[in-house]
Design goal:
By secondary structure, the protein is α+β, with helices and mostly antiparallel strands. The chain is built from eight helices and eight strands, in the order H-H-E-H-E-H-E-E-H-H-H-H-E-E-E-E. The chain folds into two domains: 92 residues, no CATH class; 126 residues, no CATH class. A six-stranded antiparallel β-sheet has the order 3-4-8-7-6-5, with no helix packed on it.
Protein backbone atom coordinates (compact mmCIF):
# COMPACT_ATOMS: atom_id res chain seq x y z
CA UNK A 1 0.00 0.00 0.00
CA UNK A 2 1.37 3.47 -0.82
CA UNK A 3 2.38 5.78 2.00
CA UNK A 4 0.70 9.13 2.66
CA UNK A 5 3.48 10.94 0.82
CA UNK A 6 2.91 8.87 -2.37
CA UNK A 7 -0.66 10.03 -2.96
CA UNK A 8 0.08 11.71 -6.31
CA UNK A 9 1.04 8.44 -8.00
CA UNK A 10 -1.79 6.22 -6.79
CA UNK A 11 -5.43 5.74 -7.68
CA UNK A 12 -7.98 7.99 -5.97
CA UNK A 13 -9.68 5.19 -3.99
CA UNK A 14 -6.40 3.66 -2.86
CA UNK A 15 -5.07 7.07 -1.82
CA UNK A 16 -8.22 7.80 0.15
CA UNK A 17 -7.82 4.52 2.05
CA UNK A 18 -4.14 5.20 2.66
CA UNK A 19 -4.89 8.67 3.94
CA UNK A 20 -7.63 7.38 6.24
CA UNK A 21 -5.31 4.74 7.65
CA UNK A 22 -2.67 7.40 8.28
CA UNK A 23 -5.14 9.70 10.00
CA UNK A 24 -6.58 6.87 12.08
CA UNK A 25 -3.07 5.95 13.19
CA UNK A 26 -2.75 9.25 15.06
CA UNK A 27 -6.26 9.03 16.46
CA UNK A 28 -7.85 11.90 14.52
CA UNK A 29 -10.46 10.35 12.26
CA UNK A 30 -12.40 13.32 10.92
CA UNK A 31 -15.75 11.56 11.00
CA UNK A 32 -15.38 10.99 14.74
CA UNK A 33 -14.42 14.54 15.72
CA UNK A 34 -17.17 16.15 17.81
CA UNK A 35 -15.17 18.55 19.98
CA UNK A 36 -12.83 20.81 17.95
CA UNK A 37 -10.75 21.83 20.97
CA UNK A 38 -10.25 18.18 21.91
CA UNK A 39 -9.32 17.44 18.29
CA UNK A 40 -6.58 20.09 18.27
CA UNK A 41 -5.38 18.91 21.65
CA UNK A 42 -5.29 15.40 20.24
CA UNK A 43 -3.06 16.67 17.43
CA UNK A 44 -0.67 18.00 20.04
CA UNK A 45 -0.64 14.62 21.75
CA UNK A 46 0.10 12.87 18.46
CA UNK A 47 2.84 15.12 17.10
CA UNK A 48 4.17 16.97 20.15
CA UNK A 49 3.78 14.51 23.03
CA UNK A 50 6.67 16.15 24.88
CA UNK A 51 4.49 19.25 25.31
CA UNK A 52 1.48 17.46 26.77
CA UNK A 53 2.28 17.13 30.45
CA UNK A 54 1.48 18.87 33.73
CA UNK A 55 4.31 21.38 33.28
CA UNK A 56 3.19 23.00 30.04
CA UNK A 57 0.09 25.20 29.84
CA UNK A 58 -2.33 25.70 26.95
CA UNK A 59 -4.06 28.95 25.96
CA UNK A 60 -7.03 28.71 23.58
CA UNK A 61 -8.03 31.93 21.83
CA UNK A 62 -9.64 33.56 18.82
CA UNK A 63 -8.77 36.95 17.35
CA UNK A 64 -11.46 38.94 15.53
CA UNK A 65 -13.05 42.42 15.57
CA UNK A 66 -15.03 43.03 18.76
CA UNK A 67 -18.18 44.06 16.87
CA UNK A 68 -18.61 40.67 15.23
CA UNK A 69 -21.23 38.28 16.55
CA UNK A 70 -19.41 36.01 19.00
CA UNK A 71 -20.81 32.53 19.65
CA UNK A 72 -19.40 29.25 20.91
CA UNK A 73 -20.00 27.60 17.55
CA UNK A 74 -18.27 30.44 15.75
CA UNK A 75 -15.34 30.33 18.15
CA UNK A 76 -14.91 26.61 17.65
CA UNK A 77 -14.85 26.99 13.88
CA UNK A 78 -11.68 29.10 13.95
CA UNK A 79 -9.51 29.40 17.03
CA UNK A 80 -5.89 29.37 18.06
CA UNK A 81 -4.08 27.29 20.64
CA UNK A 82 -0.81 28.35 22.23
CA UNK A 83 1.45 26.22 24.41
CA UNK A 84 3.66 27.99 26.95
CA UNK A 85 6.56 26.53 28.88
CA UNK A 86 4.96 26.71 32.31
CA UNK A 87 2.41 28.42 34.49
CA UNK A 88 5.10 30.99 35.29
CA UNK A 89 5.48 31.72 31.59
CA UNK A 90 1.72 32.16 31.30
CA UNK A 91 1.73 34.58 34.23
CA UNK A 92 4.85 36.40 33.07
CA UNK A 93 2.86 39.34 31.79
CA UNK A 94 0.37 39.18 34.63
CA UNK A 95 2.59 40.10 37.56
CA UNK A 96 1.43 42.64 40.11
CA UNK A 97 3.39 45.26 38.16
CA UNK A 98 1.66 44.53 34.85
CA UNK A 99 -1.76 43.09 35.63
CA UNK A 100 -4.61 45.37 34.64
CA UNK A 101 -2.54 47.52 32.28
CA UNK A 102 -4.10 46.03 29.17
CA UNK A 103 -7.36 47.36 27.76
CA UNK A 104 -9.46 44.44 29.02
CA UNK A 105 -8.92 40.86 30.13
CA UNK A 106 -11.90 38.59 30.74
CA UNK A 107 -11.81 35.16 32.34
CA UNK A 108 -14.91 32.98 32.78
CA UNK A 109 -16.06 29.66 34.14
CA UNK A 110 -19.25 27.81 33.06
CA UNK A 111 -21.04 24.64 34.11
CA UNK A 112 -21.48 21.87 31.51
CA UNK A 113 -25.14 22.91 31.14
CA UNK A 114 -24.02 26.39 30.06
CA UNK A 115 -24.82 28.27 33.27
CA UNK A 116 -22.23 30.82 34.37
CA UNK A 117 -20.23 30.18 37.52
CA UNK A 118 -17.97 33.24 37.48
CA UNK A 119 -16.64 35.97 35.22
CA UNK A 120 -13.77 38.33 36.09
CA UNK A 121 -12.86 41.52 34.22
CA UNK A 122 -9.70 43.62 34.66
CA UNK A 123 -8.07 46.35 32.59
CA UNK A 124 -7.93 50.04 31.89
CA UNK A 125 -11.49 49.90 30.52
CA UNK A 126 -12.90 49.26 33.99
CA UNK A 127 -10.38 51.34 35.97
CA UNK A 128 -8.97 48.29 37.72
CA UNK A 129 -5.63 49.84 38.67
CA UNK A 130 -7.25 53.12 39.68
CA UNK A 131 -9.52 51.18 42.02
CA UNK A 132 -6.52 49.40 43.54
CA UNK A 133 -4.84 52.79 44.09
CA UNK A 134 -7.94 54.15 45.85
CA UNK A 135 -8.09 51.08 48.06
CA UNK A 136 -4.45 51.57 48.97
CA UNK A 137 -5.07 55.16 50.08
CA UNK A 138 -7.97 54.10 52.30
CA UNK A 139 -5.99 51.20 53.76
CA UNK A 140 -3.22 53.61 54.80
CA UNK A 141 -5.68 55.95 56.51
CA UNK A 142 -7.16 53.61 59.07
CA UNK A 143 -8.65 56.49 61.08
CA UNK A 144 -10.82 57.70 58.19
CA UNK A 145 -14.58 57.63 58.54
CA UNK A 146 -16.87 56.45 55.76
CA UNK A 147 -17.53 60.11 54.95
CA UNK A 148 -13.80 60.63 54.44
CA UNK A 149 -13.74 57.70 52.02
CA UNK A 150 -16.70 59.06 50.07
CA UNK A 151 -14.99 62.46 49.92
CA UNK A 152 -11.89 60.83 48.43
CA UNK A 153 -13.99 59.12 45.76
CA UNK A 154 -15.72 62.40 44.90
CA UNK A 155 -12.38 64.22 44.68
CA UNK A 156 -11.16 61.55 42.23
CA UNK A 157 -14.19 62.13 40.00
CA UNK A 158 -16.15 58.99 40.88
CA UNK A 159 -19.57 59.17 39.23
CA UNK A 160 -21.22 56.60 41.49
CA UNK A 161 -20.39 57.19 45.16
CA UNK A 162 -22.78 56.06 47.93
CA UNK A 163 -24.18 59.59 47.80
CA UNK A 164 -25.17 58.93 44.17
CA UNK A 165 -26.98 55.65 44.75
CA UNK A 166 -30.07 56.81 42.87
CA UNK A 167 -27.96 57.53 39.77
CA UNK A 168 -26.26 54.14 40.00
CA UNK A 169 -29.54 52.26 40.40
CA UNK A 170 -31.06 54.25 37.53
CA UNK A 171 -28.46 52.92 35.09
CA UNK A 172 -28.88 49.31 36.21
CA UNK A 173 -31.39 48.60 33.42
CA UNK A 174 -28.18 47.88 31.50
CA UNK A 175 -28.37 44.59 33.37
CA UNK A 176 -30.98 43.61 30.80
CA UNK A 177 -28.08 43.03 28.40
CA UNK A 178 -27.13 40.07 30.61
CA UNK A 179 -29.83 38.13 28.82
CA UNK A 180 -26.98 37.37 26.38
CA UNK A 181 -25.33 35.36 29.17
CA UNK A 182 -28.26 33.97 31.11
CA UNK A 183 -30.94 33.62 28.45
CA UNK A 184 -33.44 35.40 30.69
CA UNK A 185 -33.96 38.79 32.28
CA UNK A 186 -32.25 39.13 35.69
CA UNK A 187 -34.33 40.24 38.68
CA UNK A 188 -32.37 42.63 40.91
CA UNK A 189 -32.66 42.09 44.67
CA UNK A 190 -30.37 44.77 46.06
CA UNK A 191 -27.60 47.24 45.26
CA UNK A 192 -25.23 48.21 48.08
CA UNK A 193 -21.98 50.18 48.09
CA UNK A 194 -19.34 48.26 50.04
CA UNK A 195 -16.72 50.43 51.75
CA UNK A 196 -15.11 48.24 54.40
CA UNK A 197 -17.12 45.04 54.88
CA UNK A 198 -15.88 42.42 57.32
CA UNK A 199 -14.05 39.43 55.90
CA UNK A 200 -14.51 35.83 57.05
CA UNK A 201 -12.27 36.46 60.06
CA UNK A 202 -14.20 39.55 61.14
CA UNK A 203 -11.65 42.10 59.97
CA UNK A 204 -12.64 45.11 57.82
CA UNK A 205 -11.48 44.89 54.20
CA UNK A 206 -11.37 47.93 51.90
CA UNK A 207 -13.50 47.17 48.82
CA UNK A 208 -15.02 50.43 47.41
CA UNK A 209 -17.37 48.75 44.94
CA UNK A 210 -21.07 48.44 44.27
CA UNK A 211 -22.45 45.00 45.02
CA UNK A 212 -25.59 44.01 43.09
CA UNK A 213 -27.41 40.77 43.90
CA UNK A 214 -29.86 39.41 41.34
CA UNK A 215 -31.75 36.25 40.43
CA UNK A 216 -32.07 34.59 37.07
CA UNK A 217 -33.54 31.35 35.78
CA UNK A 218 -30.84 29.45 33.90
CA UNK A 219 -31.17 25.99 32.36
CA UNK A 220 -34.33 25.39 34.39
CA UNK A 221 -32.68 26.43 37.68
CA UNK A 222 -33.37 29.57 39.72
CA UNK A 223 -29.90 30.92 40.53
CA UNK A 224 -28.62 33.91 42.48
CA UNK A 225 -25.67 35.98 41.31
CA UNK A 226 -23.52 38.78 42.61
CA UNK A 227 -22.25 41.55 40.29
CA UNK A 228 -19.51 43.98 41.32
CA UNK A 229 -19.03 47.43 39.78
CA UNK A 230 -16.33 50.06 40.31
CA UNK A 231 -17.46 53.58 41.39
CA UNK A 232 -15.64 55.77 38.85
CA UNK A 233 -17.87 54.93 35.88
CA UNK A 234 -19.85 51.97 37.13
CA UNK A 235 -17.95 49.43 35.02
CA UNK A 236 -18.30 45.71 35.68
CA UNK A 237 -15.55 43.96 37.63
CA UNK A 238 -17.03 40.57 38.49
CA UNK A 239 -20.04 38.30 38.06
CA UNK A 240 -20.32 35.28 40.30
CA UNK A 241 -22.90 32.73 41.32
CA UNK A 242 -23.92 32.78 44.98
CA UNK A 243 -23.85 29.34 46.58
CA UNK A 244 -27.01 29.10 48.67
Amino acid sequence: MPTFGESRSCGRAVCWIASLVWVAAVGIVTAQIRDPVAAVHGTLKAFFPELVDDRHFVIVYRTAPANRTWTTDGFLQSFGLEVVESRDAFLRDNTSERIGKGLLDVSSDFDPDGSLRALHVIGTANHFLELLALRSVVEKNTNWSDDDVVRLLSDKGARYTPANRAAFVAQLPRMATLVEIFGAMPSIEEAVFMIRPLDSSGRPTVVLTWDVVFQCRVAGKQLRYDATFEPLEGKLLHLGRIND
